[in-house]
Every structure is written in C-alpha cells, then in structure tokens.
Specification:
about 280 residues, alpha+beta, 5-stranded antiparallel sheet
C-alpha cells in the first residue's frame, strides 16, 4: 500500500501549526499565571498600605484579583485551541448565578464583612452593642464578628446582622460622661446637697476636671427631689469610676445628714363591725 506523497506537506503543516498553538498556549498560560501572581501580590501590598484595610481584607482582595485573572487566562488558552469559549463563559456565568443564589446568606455576610473592615465602625478591643448583644470585640473576619461578654461568654454574630442594624460603640471616644441620679428628702437644703455631691465627685482623682462635674435638680418626684450628677471620665476606667462615685456619693450624703428617702405605704384599718355593735347597744 502506497501513501500519497501529497499528504506529507499537509500533515507537516498541521503538525507545525499544532505545535505552534501548543507553544503559544503554554506561553499564554505561563505568562498569565505570572501576571496573576504579580497582580495579586501587588494588590496585597497596596491594600496593606491603606489604614482602613487589614490583612484579612487585603488577602481577600488579592484572592479576587488572582483567580479572576486566572479565569481569563484559561479562557484565552482554550480559545487558542479553537474551543468555543462563548458557551463555556455562559455555563460559568449560569453556575456562578446558581451558586450565588444558593449561598446568598453567606455572600451577604462576606459583603457586610468587607464593609465592616473598610469603614471600621468598631475595632478589636472595643466594647460594643450589636444586634442586641453586648461585649468586647475579639475578632472580625469576612463572615462573623466575635464578642466576649463581661462574664466571659463568647458570642458569634453573622456580619449581615452587625452591618444591617444599629451599632453602639461604647469605647470609640477617649472619654465618657457618667450620669448618676440621687433622691433626697423634700426638706433637704438642695444647695448643700448639690455641693456635697460635687465635692464627692471632685475627690475622685480619676474624674476629669474639664468639663467640671455638675449637679442639677432633675425632677420633683412623688416622694423625693431627684438630683442628677454628671462627671466625665476616661473611657478605659468608666465602670470602675462609676462604681466608686456611687459609693462615695452615698457616704458623703450620709456624713452630712442628708436623707435618701424611699417609698413607704401607710395602711388604715377600719373596723366596721365594731362600729355597728356600738350603735346597736346605744339604741
């Protein structure tokens, strides 16, 4: 059996063309992977230079850049071999949509985590109230925020709950105001009571002198006059100073003979049966 000699040039051209395609595809793949790694590392370095972006968020951005570029590289390589990439892109898009719908709750947590890391409404070590839960922030990642309560209980909150509700940060500012209410009897000399409370607050060395402590007559209650004492304190010592001021104020009021009243009830007993018996005997 003889082979048609005219087939060899065709075969040779096909072989050379295929080899060239393989080399070009390999070059695209190698160069594309190198670009993806370089762009990923560059994004990580640039993100770390921003004061609002931490390592977790920088790694997330770098991951998106790297695998996004790798997807384009793979599509370019397949297109080089003559594969219809349009249908592949359509399938990938439909798959991404299906995965997104299935994981919409998780993806909402990731989106909220990115926003929390960018805008920083709270940081590690802050005492906050999130979604009705209070505690110290011990971890913030792309999915959850971890809190530790004052009695050392761990609370894990999805980021979507934290970002989608009101957030209260008790330690965002370096100082906080302490408000204390006291009740004194109606026959109390109010000016004296105010001076006693002011002196008790000024005696606490950790209380800030600017703004100075103040005491106001807040309300005339049912059984007492209500006074409000206000003092500013460093946020880090807020609780300990508050407890100390309550104790010192009570001792100062007692030492100056100022009565702190409390509600009392007076019961009257009417003996109707005895009165009826007296009326009968008189008749």
């Amino acid at each position: 059996m003889q082979i048609d000699p005219t087939i060899w040039p065709v075969f040779w051209r096909a072989l050379v063309g295929g080899a060239i395609n393989v080399l070009i595809a390999a070059a695209i793949l190698v160069f594309g992977m190198w670009v993806a790694v370089w762009a990923s590392n560059t994004m990580r370095k640039l993100s770390r230079q921003h004061p609002r972006v931490d390592d977790t968020l920088a790694a997330f951005f770098a991951w998106i850049v790297r695998y996004g570029l790798m997807a384009f590289v793979i599509v370019a390589v397949l297109n080089r071999f003559g594969v219809a990439t349009t249908s592949i892109v359509a399938v990938l898009g439909a798959s991404a949509l299906a995965i997104g719908l299935a994981l919409q709750g998780t993806l909402s947590n990731v989106a909220a985590g990115v926003m929390l890391m960018l805008f920083r409404p709270y940081r590690l070590g802050d005492y906050v109230e999130l979604a009705g839960k209070s505690g110290t922030v011990v971890d913030v990642n792309l999915f959850t925020t971890d809190l530790t309560t004052l009695d050392n209980v761990k609370i894990v909150l999805p980021n979507s709950l934290c970002w989608g509700a009101a957030m209260i940060n008790y330690t965002a500012h370096p100082r906080r105001r302490i408000d204390l209410d006291f009740a004194v009897a109606y026959d109390t000399n109010l000016d004296k009571a105010i001076d006693v409370l002011k002196e008790a607050m000024r005696a606490e060395k950790r209380v800030l002198l600017e703004p100075p402590p103040v005491v106001y007559v807040k309300q005339l209650g049912d059984y007492a006059v209500l006074l409000t004492a206000r003092a500013w304190a460093p946020t880090r010592d807020y609780l300990s100073i508050r407890f100390a001021l309550i104790k010192a104020s009570k001792e100062a009021l007692d030492a100056n003979g100022i009565v702190i009243p409390f509600p009392t009830n007076t019961n009257y007993e009417v003996r109707i049966a005895a009165a009826s018996e007296t009326s009968r005997l008189a008749g």
